[in-house]
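Handout, section B. The chain below has 240 residues.
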Amino acid sequence: MKEIPAVGLGTWKATPGEVTQAVKVAIDTGYRHFDCAFYYHNESESEDWDLPLDRNGMVIPSDTDYLDTWEAMESLVLEGLVRAIGVSNFNQEQLERLLDKPNLKIMPQTNQIECHPYLTQEPLIKFCQSRGVVVTAYRPLGGYSDGMDMREDPVIQDIAEKYKKSAAQIMIRFQIQRGVVVIPKSVTPKRIVENFQVFDFELSEEDMTALLLLNQNLRLATFPAAANHKDYPFGKLPDV
């Protein structure tokens, strides 16, 4: 099992110019975990669109079984090209199928999923942790729901006032105390620094319960639809 910092910097939807400066600020702040992906399109090498579309604008999925893809990823670890591999947006059924693979050589180190107080993911997190898979929470600060910024939720605001912290810091600390790695995205220097200042306080059990009770199973992350493919992770979102 490899170690991973509990707090990282998310770079999803940060433009190339923005992300460069954000990473510089984060490094100076003490971040050593950066969430990057070809799909984010904020690297100079990533200018071409990477999802093939049909004439109706629907994603054309691959027929390759993700277990076969995993074997190819395992070879990268065995050849010393990467240190660890994991998955993203996997539900329990998908992850269980991978973990129970007869000839599994390399365990998935993490399952990266959308997770915030309105989508607490309790069953999936418990399953992952029971099988030794670290959960990484993306979009931990939520976003807008019915025109309201999740950080303005009265419960979160009250807890933030109690600890003299920002709503974002409360939402990040919430994940840390659940044993979940968290990767809040920001390109604002002040917020990048603030999001890292979450190790000098601890939420009470009562406040953790109050945050868990905010759950609405609300998904905010959306992906292009896939044509006629029930298992494609960017079409009908899996129940994670």
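Note. The first strand starts at residue 9 and ends at 10. Compare this with the example in section A.
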